[in-house]
Amino acid sequence: MARRRERAKRVRTPVSTTHHRRLVNPFEPLKVLSDDNVAHIHQTAKTYLAEHGIKVLLDEARTIFSQNGSTVDESMMVRIDPDSIDAALAAAPTEFELLAPNPDRNQHVGGNSLVLAPVGGPPFASDREKGRRPGTIVDQENFLKLTQSYDVMGSTAPCVEPSDLPLNTRHLRSGLATLTLSDKPAFIYSRGRDRVRDSFELTKLRFGIESDEEFAQAPRCFTNINVNSPRQLDIPMSMGIIDFARMGQMNIMTPFTLAGAMAPVTLAGALVLQHMEVLAAVTLAQLVRPGAPVLYGAFTSNVDMKSGSPAFGTPEAMKGALASGQLARHVGLPWRSSGSSASNAVDAQAGYETMTNTYAAFLAGASWIMHAAGWQEGGLTANYEKFIVDVEMCQMIAETCQPLKVDEAELALDAITDVGPGGHFFGTDHTLARFETAFYQPLVFSRTNFEQWTEEGSRRTDERATEIWKKVLAEYEAPPLPDDRRAAMSDLVDRRTAEGGAAPD
Asked: How many CA atoms lie within 13 A of 183 on its CB side?
C-alpha cells in the first residue's frame, strides 16, 4: 500500500512531455452553420461596414482608412470599402510561425495546429489558503512559473494584473518577468505607444536582436485587441493594431460580443457583429503592413439576463465557437477562442463550464485557445488550484491529439490469443511493456474505487491541487538566459523606471 501511495505521488508530479509542445488537432472541425449561412453572414458584415461603418477614435487610424478608399465623416465613423476588406483578407497569412526565445517552444499558428494558453488579465488572484485578493507581481511571477512548468501551455499570458506596481512602470517589471521566467512566446499588452515600445525593446534584448528591421522579419510576441463592442475601435486598441502590424508582430482581433449586453441577444446577431468588427480590425492591420500576422478572435458568449453577468460554458457559447470557426475558415484566417467559466469556486460548475468551452473550441478547430487554465469568476480571478485542474483537462486534450497507432504490435493479436476466452490482460507481456505509457496518468483526479479509497485519495480535488502547485513552484527552474542579455534587460527596466516609465496616451 505504501508503494502504491508513493507511485501515486510520482505520477502527479509534472513531467516535461515534449509531445505536448506543438499540438496538431487530428479532427475535422464540427459545423453548426450551412455554407450558405456562413457566406451570408460574411457578405452581410461587409455590406454593413460599407453602409454604416465602425467608429474609430484614433486620428491616425482614420487617416489610414481614408487614404485607402474608405469614407470618414466628422463623427469618426469609417465606412470601409469592401475591396479593402477583400484585399486585406487576401494579404493576411493563413499560417505562420510564432517564434519563442527557445526555438523548441516555437508555435505554428494556423492549419491544424493548436495552442493552449493560460488565463490572462484578471485583477484578482485566489488560492484555497489565502483566498481572493488583488493580484500582485508575485502572483504574476508564480503563474508564469506554473505556465513554464507545463509543456501543454503553449505561450505565456498576463495571468493576473500586478496591481501593486505603478501603472506607468508596471509593464516594465511585468515584461521582464514574462521574458525571464519563461522561454515561451510572450504576450504584450497594447496599452499605449510607450508601453508597447518598451516591451518591444525588452523582447529584442531577450532574442539578442539589435535592429527593428530584424525584429520585424518574424513574429516574436503577440497581443490581444479587444474591439469596444458594439462597433468602436478605441485609441489604445487602434494604436496596438498599428504598432504590432508595423513591426510584423501577432495581433489577435477579439470583439467583446456578449449576447444581450454588448451584442444582440440573438446568436446570429452577435456573430455578424463579431464578424464585422474582426474584418475592420484585420483590414486596418493589413493596410499598415500587408502580410502582418493576425488571428480572428472569437469571444462570443451570452450574459445571464437576470443579473447581467457574463455566462460561459453555455450552449450559446458552444454554438458560437463552432460558428466562429466556420467564419474564420471562410475568410482564411487562424482563429482564437477561449476556455472560460463564470464559477466563483473550484467546483463542478467550474469544471463543466471550462470543459464545455474548451472542448467546443477544440472541436471547432481553434488555432489558439486562451484562458485554458486558471480562469475563474468570469475573468475577474486567476485561481491557483483551478490552474492545476485545468492543466489536467488540457493534457487530456493534448493526449487526444496524439495519433492513434494501428500496427501489428498495437493490434495485440498474440496477447489476445495467449489470454484466451474469459481471461484478463493485466499481467500479459503486452500490458507490462506498456504499463507506464498505456494511458494518460492523471495529475489531480483519483480513479480508485471506494474500497481502495485511502486518506490520500479521498481528499478533495482542490486540496490535492494546492499541494501540486506548491510543489511545482518549489521545483521550478528558470530557463537559460545569457548573463549579458539578462543584464541588458534589467538595465533597460531600471533606466525607463528612473525616467518615469510610460506617459499616458
From this structure: 16
Q: State residue 260's pLDDT score.
A: 92
Q: Residue 466: in which H helix or E strand, if any?
A: helix 461-475
**Is 415 part of any domain?**
no
Structural domain boundaries, residue 96: 1-402+442-505
- H helices present in 228-266, as ranges: 235-246
- Reply yes or no on whether the pLDDT at 16 is more than 60: no
CA distance 431 to 502: 60
pLDDT at residue 13 in the model: 42
Instruction: Report how far Cα 303 is from the mean position of its chain's Cα atoms.
Output: 21
For residue 311, give Cα distances in angstroms to 226, 257, 340, 342: 18, 12, 9, 6
| CA separation for the pair 296, 251 (Å, rounded) | 9
Is 292 within 8 Å of 92 (Cβ atoms)? Answer: yes
What does the pLDDT average to over 18-28?
92
What is the model's pLDDT at position 449? 77
**Tell me, what amino acid is at 40?**
H
Q: Which residue has the cell 534587460?
A: 489
Instruction: Please report whether residue 409 resides in a domain.
Output: no
Amino acid present at 157: A
* CATH code at position 87: 3.20.20.480
* Residue 426 CB contacts under 8 Å (≥ 6 apart), including other chains: none
Query: In angstroms, how far is CA 414 from the centroid of its own chain?
Result: 45
Question: According to DSSP H, which parts of 158-249 are helical?
Answer: 167-181, 193-207, 212-215, 235-246
C-beta atoms surrounding 252 within 10 Å: 25
| Structural domain includes residue 383 | yes
pTM of the predicted model as reported, rounded to 2 decimal places: 0.94
pLDDT of 7 strictly over 70: no
**Contact between residue 124 and residue 160 where contact means Cβ atoms under 8 Å apart:** yes
Choice between 266 and 503, residue whose per-residue pLDDT is larger: 266
Three cell numbers, residue 438: 498505456
264 belongs to a structural domain: yes
Element (H, E) at 176: helix 167-181
Q: Are 200 and 223 in contact (CB under 8 A)?
A: no
Using CA atoms, how far apart are residues 448 and 391, in angstroms rounded to an integer? Answer: 21
Question: Looking at the chain, how many residues does it have?
Answer: 505
How many distinct structural domains can be found in the chain?
1
What count of Cα atoms within 13 Å lies in the side-chain half-sphere of residue 283? 32
Strand (E) or helix (H) holding 139: helix 137-149
